Amino acid sequence: DELYPSGLYWNISVQSADGTFLVQPTAHFLFVPNGHICGVLGPSGAGKSTTLNALGGSIPPQSSLSVNGNITYYDATSETKTTGTINSGSVAWLQQHDSFFSMLTVKETLDMAAFLELPHLIESQRNARVQSIMESLGLTKLQDRPIGDPTTRHKGGLSGGEQRRVSLARELISNPKLFIGDEPTSGLDSTMSEKVIRLVQKMVQERDIPCLLSIHQPRSSIFRMLDEVLLLAPGGRVCYHGKSEKAIGYFRNLGYECPEETNPAEFLVDLVSIDVEDQSTSIQDEIRIIKLFEAFQEYQQKRRHKLSSMPPITAVAVEDCSTTSSRGSRRRFHIIRRFGRLLLRSWRQNARNRKVNILRLLASAGNAMLFTTIFKSIKKGVFTAKSVAERVSMLTFGIVNMSMIALLKTVDLFSKEKPVVQREQLRLQYSSLEYLFSKSIAEIPLDAAFAAVFTTVLKMTSGIRTGWRALTGTFALMTVAGASLGFAIGAASPSADVALSSSAMIMVVMMAVGIINPSGVDLSDPPPLLVRALKQISPINYAVKALCLSEYKDAEFGIDTGGKPVNIFSRARIMMRDLPKMGGLALVKNGNQVLQELGLADETYAGVMKQLGVLSLVNLAISLIGLQTKNSGLSQKC
Ligand SMILES: Nc1ncnc2c1ncn2[C@@H]1O[C@H](COP(=O)(O)OP(=O)(O)OP(=O)(O)O)[C@@H](O)[C@H]1O
């Protein structure tokens, strides 16, 4: 009953670069008291998300928006006023879709959130916080279950409703000052939607914080759960803000009666919607909205006597969010421990992905055996001239196979975990460099292990000349290069689908420019500039070159006599029979000549491997820039 109750006060406007209002200012402050849920209603494009983004201090990536005005939390007990933004951990943000590291258990997920959100607490305090939030959201029984991937719904994973509860727990771990949900019920059936809102209600009441939820077409039962309603017309014009149970009466007084048995939420949204298909109706709709907007301004003016009894909010110094954010303390938090936790999380996500790992193992061993069967001339113990072209083909297919698997796996995993990483980076919990570095290190052992399986089987079953170390080293580095290309594609793509389809296209191009013609290269007719440029960025190009250099360098041809002794004339005859008769490799005498015909005479194995390493680093740098750019788009503003 205080004159000036605790809660969130705001009066803001949001304008696009051309000056258009996406959210219009109101005559006076709008207010949501602590422990209340305010439903943000309005037709599509009215400005609901923009309002929430502005209030939460996060503006979408494409932002060229300017936010003006005041957003203040008032605490009546201590009579303090502060601002807060998502980066300071003071805003909980329940997203439309849940995103997690799918292989982590519920407890591991919340432990990680507590570790990142609450660096100032000691381990036992963080554990206590995790236990208490799991209890209040009914997650204790599920704590050892893996979250699972909502798209593939793997065995043992959580249901959609259970995942929402984990999202809620993760958002509330840091004791936020404001709870925001942008369409938190979208994609859920009506029963589940009700359950989610009920849980949110319980949590915001328990924590005594204000809550704003945009809800698309809430059913009557959900509307009844809302304490307040903020009704927005297109252009972010506030046409009503106040108690939900008073909304229908308010519009009745303005001459708009809600028909009986009509969902009040639908009635309200219809009042501020514009029928864009019918021009005459749309003009009438616009006139009605202007009237409603002006009526609300007047309504606020009339209620002013109440507000004027409070000290004007702007007169009190409001802390600047850039100085109050715990950015500094987060950054100071022990970097090595944080890096260790990120590394462990990536490792668990990779190593526990049993289905993918078994498939990779089978593909690595199976393809090596398949290649040995196809390229029969590469026999053990003898390097015949007949096998020259087949060796190039076999090594090329091997490289394409391993890099394709590494790239697709990385793009898939990276795109799925990107929303989680962006959420954490928006809260300034670690840098993109830390994430990429830890992820790369966590993935290298597994990638190298699969490369080792492939090369071991290849070495055991075929007569490949390259030594085991060079073979495994090249394939392992190629796998890392494929993965780093996957990171770059994943970071630059707006969604998982775009990343997957573009990686297939990019791979085809990398293959086309990377493979070496096994019948020799015409050095007198160099490829066009574009192809030469693409070769420079194709990891396949470097890996194939490296393997050819290792396979042919100083190799002398022998003959396959099937173990029978043969005289010198027969040897010469078999040798002549085996030599390639056509193309650039025709009548080559030894491995060095093969390298010359393939255009590799001036290259060295070490030099090419270095280039492959540099390319991997460049791809990692591109991923870093991609992640940074996306995060800076989610800039925080007061
Ligand atoms: N960065 C921007 N620059 C210019 N216009 C923008 C920008 N972001 C959003 N808009 C426009 O602002 C208006 C409000 O968008 P907003 O996403 O807030 O609507 P919404 O009410 O949440 O819609 P929906 O219910 O469909 O999600 C839209 O017309 C949108 O096109």
TrEMBL record:
ABC transporter domain: residues covered: 3-260
Localization annotation: Membrane
Family annotation (InterPro entries): AAA+_ATPase, ABC2_TM, ABC_transporter-like_ATP-bd, ABC_transporter-like_CS, ABCG_dom, ABCG_transporters, P-loop_NTPase
Gene Ontology molecular function, alphabetical: ABC-type transporter activity; ATP binding; ATP hydrolysis activity
PROSITE patterns reported for this sequence: ABC_TRANSPORTER_1 (PS00211), ABC_TRANSPORTER_2 (PS50893)
Predominant place of localization: membrane
Protein name: ABC transporter domain-containing protein
Organism of origin: Cylindrotheca closterium
Lineage: Eukaryota, Sar, Stramenopiles, Ochrophyta, Bacillariophyta
